[in-house]
Amino acid sequence: MSTSLQELKKTKPKYPETTMGTHCMGDNWTVCCPYHARLYDRYHQTKLVIQIYYRGGIYRVYVCTDKCGNNLKRLAFKQPDKFKKMFIKSIKPNGDIVLKHHITGETTQIAKKMDTYVEKKTKQTKRTKQVGGRRNKTHTRKRSHKYTVKQRK
Predict the structure, then answer these.
(1) Which of 46, 85, 112, 151 has the fewest CB atoms within 10 Å around its CB?
(2) Cα 118 to the chain's mean position, in Å?
(3) 82 falls in which pLDDT band (50, 70, 90)?
(4) What is the DSSP letter of 42?
(5) For residue 136, what pLDDT band results from cuts at 50, 70 and 90?
(6) Half-sphere exposure of residue 51, counting CA atoms within 13 Å on the CB side?
(7) Phi and psi dihedrals of 72, rounded to 5?
(8) Residues 6+ apart with CB under 8 A from 62
(9) What pLDDT was estimated at residue 44?
């Protein structure tokens, strides 16, 4: 059910829909991209599936391009407060996130909660310093050489 560009320019949709003419509610709210800018008052059709790590949960989000996916992933993981302000409309009791479009504020997608994760703090290990092209060893035992070294007089 695709429509021509002239028809898209002339009419404004009554409900949020994609450039292909499908309603955003289709396929359990997974049709419209929450990141990409709108075209003729319509949202972009989703093509890719990504996993977002947001505050201890792993969510499945559908996006239109790799760029949208990378930006959403980075924002959700590194700046969760900004992500919440821009994209989250509400959180359902079962843990799913209702995503809104960051420009219009309309509901575009429901991100299903897949799993949870725990952020582990990595233990700092002893690092070797690199000096003049040679590494200083962290152990104290010297190497045993096969060859004898002549001492200078």
Answers:
(1) 151
(2) 17
(3) very high
(4) B
(5) low
(6) 9
(7) -65, -45
(8) 30, 31, 33, 46, 48, 49, 50, 109
(9) 87
Is the pLDDT at 102 greater than 70? The verdict is yes
* Cα 152 from Cα 106, distance rounded (Å): 83
Strand order in the sheet with 88-91: 48-54, 57-63, 107-116, 97-100, 88-91
Residue 86: which of 96, 65, 64, 71 has the closest Cα? 71
Rounded to whole angstroms, how far apart are CA atoms 79 and 24? Answer: 27
Placement of tokens 């994209």 in the chain: 87
Region label for 115, one of left (φ > 0), alpha (ψ between -120 and 50) or beta (otherwise): beta
3-state secondary structure of 115: strand
23 CB neighbour count, 10 Å cutoff: 15
Is the pTM value of this prediction over 0.85?
Answer: no
> What percent of the chain is modeled with pLDDT above 70?
71
Cα–Cα distance for residue pair 79/108, rounded to 1 Å: 21
Query: What are the beta bridge partners of residue 32?
Result: 45
The pair of structure tokens assigned to 58 is 């792993």
- CA 147, distance to chain mean position in Å, is 57
**Residue 21, number of CB atoms within 10 A of its CB:** 14
